[in-house]
Amino acid sequence: MTVDAGQRGLLDELQRRHAGLSPRLRQAARHILDHPNQAALSTVTELSTAAGVQPSALIRLAQAIGFSGFSEMQKVLQSALAAASPSYGERVHQLRAAGAETGAMGLLRQAGALNQLSLQNLLDTVDPAALDRAIALLVKAPLVHVVGQRRSHPVAGYIAYGLTRSGKVARLMAGAAGMLRDEAETMRPGDALVVISLHPYSADAVETAAWAASHGVSVVALSDGPLSPLLASASVALDVRDAELFGFRALVAQMCLAQVLVLGVLQAGQPGQG
């Protein structure tokens, strides 16, 4: 593989080889697949820390797929980001400047720069046809169920709230008192399920999606790409990735996508629409 491969070719190659890599290289590859923009912007030390591996693992990974080293592999990701976003250079400068600043304002500027990248990545990579199909499934369904565990729970709550406020019958599956499976079994054929789960995936969310798909329920999955276990159950999948700062993943891109789903359903219900 060479620097001419392009980001899509690089990510496809990482996905293809993922299962055959050593555990540490799989961990490094997984992080790059989940966070290609972070991989484009970070030093090898910063990226290895975020991925939980040694810098040497990133170098070995690059060599395993045909590059001379990490820097050559990173150029592929940087070229894609620069082509998609004309302000790439300025954002890199802002991110590095924010990282050098201490205190709360330094954190704010760094978080702001990372979240801008997450939103730009969403705009650059979203599948318009998949987005339209997702909205159509939600419009058609008599009842929309929404599930998101742990840090995806606020996104699920927003979708359920927004759909309800828009006049759509929707309910948040909270799984209180360990009753998520019981809630899932109330879903009926023709209903829709919106499930949000990113790596590391919620086993409960994956199981709920699988149950729904096997019982005639349309599944709209918000997840993070080709290795997501939700893809096996999804009627339509929307790829969304948020940046992490010191191990805490933001929700900016996920919330933006959630807002679009709600507004799309609302718009479809307006006179002259749909």
From TrEMBL:
Residues 8-84 form the HTH rpiR-type domain. InterPro entries: Homeodomain-like_sf, HTH_RpiR, RpiR-like, RpiR-like_SIS, SIS_dom, SIS_dom_sf, WH-like_DNA-bd_sf. Residues 134-271 form the SIS domain. Gene3D superfamilies: Glucose-6-phosphate isomerase like protein, domain 1, Winged helix-like DNA-binding domain superfamily/Winged helix DNA-binding domain. Keywords: DNA-binding, Transcription, Transcription regulation. The keyword Transmembrane helix does not apply. Transmembrane segments: none annotated. This is MurR/RpiR family transcriptional regulator. It comes from Muricoccus vinaceus.
